[in-house]
Amino acid sequence: MAAAALLRRLPAARSPAAALMGARPISDSTTPLTIETSMPFTSHIVDPPSRDVTTTPAELVTFFRDMSLMRRMEIAADSLYKAKLIRGFCHLYDGQEAVTVGMEAAITRKDSIITAYRDHCIYMSRGGDLVTAFAELMGRKIGCSRGKGGSMHFYKKDANFYGGHGIVGAQVPLGCGLAFAQKYRKEDSVSFALYGDGAANQGQLFEALNISALWKLPAILVCENNHYGMGTAEWRAAKSPSYYKRGDYVPGLKVDGMDVLAVKQACKFAKEHAIANGPIVLEMDTYRYHGHSMSDPGSTYRTRDEISGVRQERDPIERVRKLILAHDLATPAELKDMEKEIRKEVDTAIAQAKESPMPDASELFTNVYVKGFGVESFGADRKELRATLP
Amino acid sequence: MLGAARRQLGSGPMLGQVLRRLRPASADAARGYAAAGKEITVREALNTALDEEMSADPSVFLMGEEVGEYQGAYKITKGLLDKYGPDRVLDTPITEAGFTGIGVGAAYQGLRPVIEFMTFNFSMQAIDHIINSAAKSNYMSAGQINVPIVFRGPNGAAAGVGAQHSQCYAAWYAHVPGLKVLAPYSAEDARGLLKAAIRDPDPVVFLENELLYGESFPVSDEVLDSSFSLPIGKAKIERKGKDVTITAFSKMVGYALQAADILSKEGISAEVINLRSIRPLDRAAINASVRKTNRLVTLEEGFPQHGVGAEICMSVVEESFEYLDAPVERIAGADVPMPYAANLERLAVPQVEDIVRAARRACYRAVPLAATA
């Protein structure tokens, strides 16, 4: 790496007990480590943060683990969809893992996140678990939305994760509303509204950004630019694909979204900015290996060379693997073992989710309202199927 | 709690007091108010309801165009900016999709927004947030994300405002499970239903009527008390009768009461039901009334096809078919975009004579039964 002067090589810290037991001595050290981002930040009407990111060996290993888990989860979902255990829409996030993992490292659970339908991994970052995720995908009663939402509607309110939205662009004003509530209640927290390059052209985004800037809401708009809005490349959809500049009077930062440390740095910077000054736009330059959804092969509008090129040059997990090895925080074999464990974990979760039953028929009528006042609701033949809403 | 709303006046001194206070335009003998001698306009009713709910709960806030410094496009929010400050009474730019989405997001995070649409015609710009972001969230999240939001504003025809400013949205919003849709008529309705809407944990569409804002109605002390509220999903029998049931909501309730006066002089006793709640619809009250009168006229201002009256008719056919002595009659707005010229506009909205005519038809078009002498 070019900026060797900035890299401090630390000896991998190994806990004596672990060494005695012969356990895997993967570094769990929390001694700070400074690493330079792969590229500098490009900014719009604001001074960019430094390229030097503070991390720790333990954090890097966690990054590797979390992203690998997400990668495996999405690949497993692909198989489940092809086996027809997942129905309807299924939008996979593999390739984009660094965005959610880096973001989570910079914030707390008091900060809110909202996204669109490519939401499985963000649910995991916010503390979701594999079993409830797979169960929801398969429409089972132990799913995180009890089988009533499906792939596009994962939520985790206790971790301030507000979904999970199917209408492109709607989540942006909603995210600004989350920020409004945080400001109203004088909390020192921020809201991240994630959207794609396709959604970036939505009018309601600009309406919400205008209000957020006027009212100085602590809203951070994060464009996950994977360069394709379904089958339409960004240059065919946006007159100006510099999404970080599209806020006009709102500052913006362009970030290498495949570099988890750059994402972490940018989100930390954005959080401080939003609390002090109001909204900011982050553009994450990222990539999805799958098509738009499982109905899209993803190869009719882009070349296989492009996809494999990104996988070779910019894969977020491989980048962290290289960092871990370069800093001697673990051996290649240890990382491979970790990946094997992750595979098993995912397989076990899928098996458990497959065992769980579908929701009771009575769930058709639950949660229509919080307070149903005992009114009646009806099935297709109301003389046959009706229920009282509690 | 519902005494004022439900109390039926008998004869005696109370009735006399009430009759002295009534406006000549409508016979309110059976209205059921314990008169305390006070009248307020619908506008005052809404304003005081907002004020009291904002005072009681700091998470309630108002958002909309001109709600603050302008004191409200129709002065419904007058004085509230001065009292509660710009953090709780927010003037928005003219961007319904944006500010409605922001309101719903704030509700996700537990605040209680009251979003004003200058008229519900403009709500169409934000309808995705009302339906997909608000109405369906509690269901899709299996109860994790509820949305305690109120969308309010004038609905339906005003006077001479033309096609794009005159549509009634009751049928559209009442179509959607997950929403509650309320339509007040009187000052008591306005106060009680708005307070109930703000306190409700689910999204409520609150359909007011511009032409009712200035009308005064008598109100009891109970109605004026800050703890007053009306139940959602319950209709009110505005006038008891035995020959024909007329269902109505919002401004049309007043027209139905006028029609009932005229009909009573012809010996037809009409029962007027003020629906108050379009969703949930008080099917029990409607059906009980039709089982008593055996005849039904549905009345609404909006377009007829797939309207509120169509649902009411179907409900009665499903539950009380054998009780009907005549086909159900439907009076609705004309099936055309609202014209501007005064004579055409008059033809496009129900008039009292239309209601009277339909009720007469319902009463003289009995289906002869085999056993009838």
Verbal overview:
The complex is a heterodimer of chains A (390) and B (373). By secondary structure, chain A is an alpha/beta fold. Helix content of chain A is 39%, strand content 12%. In chain A, helix 9 links the parallel strand 9 and strand 10 (280-285). The radius of gyration of chain A is 22 Å and the shape is globular. The termini of chain A are far apart. Chain B has 15 helices and 14 strands. In chain B, the strands form three sheets. In chain B, strands 3-2-4-5-7-6-12 form a seven-stranded mixed β-sheet, with helices on both faces. In chain B, helix 3 packs parallel to helix 9, helix 5 (96-108) packs parallel to helix 6 (127-135) and helix 11 (251-265) crosses helix 15. The longest helix of chain B has 15 residues, at 42-56. The radius of gyration of chain B is 21 Å and the shape is globular. The model of chain B is unreliable at 1-34 and 366-373 (pLDDT under 50). At the A-B interface, helix 6 and helix 7 of A face helix 5, helix 6 and helix 7 of B.
The helix-strand sequence of chain A is: HEEEHHEHHHEHEEEHEHEHHHEE
Which term fits the overall shape of chain B?
Answer: globular
> What is the oligomer described by this structure?
heterodimer
The parts of chain B where pLDDT drops under 50 for at least 5 residues are 1-34, 366-373
Write down the CATH topology of the largest domain in chain A. Rossmann fold
Assign the CATH architecture of the largest domain in chain B.
Answer: 3-Layer(aba) Sandwich
| Terminus-to-terminus distance of chain B | 48 Å
Helix count, DSSP H or I runs of 4 or more residues of chain B: 15
Poorly predicted tracts of residues of chain A: 1-15, 17-23
Order of helices and strands of chain B: HHEHEHEHEHHEHEHEEHEEHEEHEHEHH
Q: Fill in the CATH topology of the largest domain in chain B.
A: Rossmann fold
Category by helix and strand content of chain B: alpha/beta
- In CATH terms, the superfamily of the largest domain in chain B is Thiamin diphosphate (ThDP)-binding fold, Pyr/PP domains
* Overall average pLDDT of chain A: 94
Tally of separate helices of chain A: 12
Strand content of chain A: 5-15%
What is the number of E strands of chain A?
12
Top-tier CATH class of the largest domain in chain B: Alpha Beta
Organism (chain A): Brachypodium distachyon (Purple false brome)
Enzyme class (chain A): oxidoreductase
Region (Disordered) (chain A): 293-312
GO molecular function, one term (chain A): pyruvate dehydrogenase (acetyl-transferring) activity
